[in-house]
Structure formats: structure tokens, C-alpha cells
Write a structure and sequence with these properties.
heterodimer, A: mainly beta, five-stranded antiparallel beta sheet, 11 strands, about 60% strand, globular, B: mainly beta, seven-stranded mixed beta sheet, four-stranded antiparallel beta sheet, about 0% helix
Chain lengths: ~110, ~120
């Protein structure tokens, strides 16, 4: 079955710097890759996603890249702000079915 | 916009008992899923709740322990049976995103049920 690995487990950056979180997946049939942000005590929130027919997608300060050949995808957050502090999860699925989540990255943005 | 709600929001239960968690969506959705999130951990898919038929369970989860119902396109229940302290976790339902103008791929989560088993 699908396996998603996520790195780093913890990331600390200075406000205004960029943050990058990387994930790899194992099942070449996976074609949908969402990213979720989870603040303490709250539900995971979908922040951006990418499909396998696209290499890059951007939404304001957030971008995601996908390398299907290497089975890598990454989340890039630019100009980080304290409110970006949260746990971020990558995930992989086949058309939304059997979504498998990475272990999560705890991002700290220091003011 | 559509709302996903879960009941109860939290509960403290004695070992050996069962708890049924409800997930309600105020619009019809194609797919509903149940996840478990243990403290400080990631999300693990328990099962896909199928409308009008038996749920599809992931490896490591069985119907006797986690019976699921989905009588219609807006409602599902997850029961945690014969509980032990290891079942202490947050249980979340999720639904596909077409009702918010998104695609069937996208999943949105309910607020979760925090379960503590003593």
C-alpha cells in the first residue's frame, strides 16, 4: 500500500524567512496530493493541493511542487508569519480514496 | 456554506464500554471517511463509510471493534466498542468537497471527538 514520508518533523524559522517541507510517496498510482494545516486543538484545514498532471501550484505565499518521476512533493511557504505556526501534513491519494497522511511537520515561526 | 458537525465533542469513558460518535453534514456528500488521530500523531484512516452498504475498513481496523453506519448521504456514525485506554484518541469524520464547489478529491474534516478511556 501507499506510504508517505515527511521531513522534517520540526522546523523553526525566523519571521519573514521561507519554510520548506518535503514528502515522498511510494505508490506511483497516487494522483492527488493535498496539504493540511492543523492548529492546536483544531481540525486539519486543507490549504493547497496538487494533481499529478501539474508540476507546480501557487496560492499567495504558499506553493507546492510535484516531481512524479522521483515521487517527491514539497510545500513552500514564503514570508512566514507567526500565524503560520502549526502542524502541517502532506498526504497522497488516488482520486481522494484511501488518503494516506505523512507524519506531520511542526512549524515554529519566531517573531 | 456547508457545515460538518460531530457529537459528542469529547467524552470520558470507562474501559469495556462503547461510544457512538455521530457525523452530520448539512448537504449531501458522496464520500464520508473516519480517521483516528492519537495524541501528537498523524491521521490514520479507519474506514470509508459507504451509503447503504458495509463500510470499507483499512488494515488494522475491524468491523467488530469499529462498527460504522451510513444510512444516508448526510449522516454517519462510528462506534468504538469494548474500549481500552489505547483507544484514547481524537476521532474525525471527513467528507468530500464537491458541496463546497471543490472536487471529489478534496476532503474536509469535522471538528473531531476527543475520547479518553480510563
Amino acid at each position: 500500500g501507499e506510504n508517505v514520508e515527511q521531513h522534517p518533523s520540526t522546523l523553526s524559522v525566523q519571521e519573514g524567512d521561507s519554510a520548506v517541507i518535503k514528502c515522498t510517496y511510494s505508490d506511483s498510482a497516487s494522483n492527488y496530493f493535498p496539504w493540511y494545516k492543523q492548529e492546536l486543538g483544531k481540525r486539519p484545514q486543507l490549504i493547497i493541493d496538487i494533481r499529478s498532471n501539474v508540476g507546480e501550484k501557487k496560492d499567495q505565499r504558499i506553493a507546492v511542487t510535484l516531481n512524479k518521476t522521483a515521487k517527491h512533493f514539497s510545500l513552500h511557504i514564503t514570508e512566514t508569519q507567526p500565524e503560520d505556526s502549526a502542524v502541517y501534513f502532506c498526504a497522497a491519494s488516488m482520486g481522494g480514496f484511501k488518503t494516506i497522511f505523512g507524519a506531520g511537520t511542526r512549524l515554529f515561526v519566531k517573531a | 456554506s456547508a457545515v460538518i458537525s460531530q457529537k459528542p465533542s469529547r467524552d470520558i469513558c470507562q474501559r469495556g464500554t462503547s461510544l457512538t460518535i455521530q457525523c452530520q453534514v448539512d448537504s449531501q456528500v458522496t464520500m464520508m471517511f473516519w480517521y483516528r488521530q492519537q495524541p501528537g500523531q498523524s491521521l490514520t484512516l479507519i474506514a470509508t463509510a459507504n451509503q447503504g452498504s458495509e463500510a470499507t475498513y483499512e488494515s488494522g481496523f475491524v468491523i467488530d471493534k469499529f462498527p460504522i453506519s451510513r444510512p444516508n448521504l448526510t449522516f454517519s456514525t462510528l462506534t468504538v466498542s469494548n474500549m481500552s485506554p489505547e483507544d484514547s484518541s481524537i476521532y474525525l469524520c471527513s467528507v468530500t468537497g464537491e458541496i463546497w464547489g471543490g472536487s471529489y478529491n478534496e476532503q474536509f474534516f469535522g471538528p473531531g471527538t476527543r475520547l479518553t478511556v480510563l
